[in-house]
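pinging the channel bc i need a second pair of eyes. not urgent but kinda urgent?? the chain im working w is below, pasted from the shared doc
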Amino acid sequence: MMLVLQEHCWVPQGGTRCLSQESLETIERSNELLAQGQAQSAELAAEAERLYQQNYEAGRAQGRAQAELEYAKKLIASALTQLSALDGLETQLVEVVSSALDKIMGATERDELIAASVQRRLAHLRQSKLITLTVASEQVAALQSALKAYPLLVTVGADSALDAAAVVVTTPTGSVRTKLELVRPLLQQEIAQVYG
């Protein structure tokens, strides 16, 4: 006996006049197996789609986290470079101001006074803390403790709207929200590179 697949079930081939009990049972088993196969196929397709979406979202989140971290690194490096540049600027400013005063007033013996004035102003700029890390309230003490070696470089603030894993890095050139666990070592690494 020949069976033919029509739509979603097996049927006897046209022209078959009578079916034995065995043939009828074969048709029923074939239809059951076909239904099971179709159900498994639908389940596998749904699972494949779910896994695709899950992996797509995971990859997207990973890419976003990497971009945020790179941006935070650039913000921190920029702020630290500005602070580091102040160190070399002090001598140059003293020389420029002394030279300008010499031209205006003639030779002067106020170099020490000028140097002290420039040093005070630069000290004020150094203490302006160009990097602000804003974290969840419960993270403030731990972050301040981790950064206690750099009290003049970083300000730590609290924001109750942030979750415990988040940090907002703010510098004069911008801000970015990223993960606290990634920023802590990044900040220490950047400070070590600039201030060696």
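so The longest strand covers residues 166-171. and The two ends are 87 Å apart (CA to CA). — does that match what u expected or am i reading it wrong
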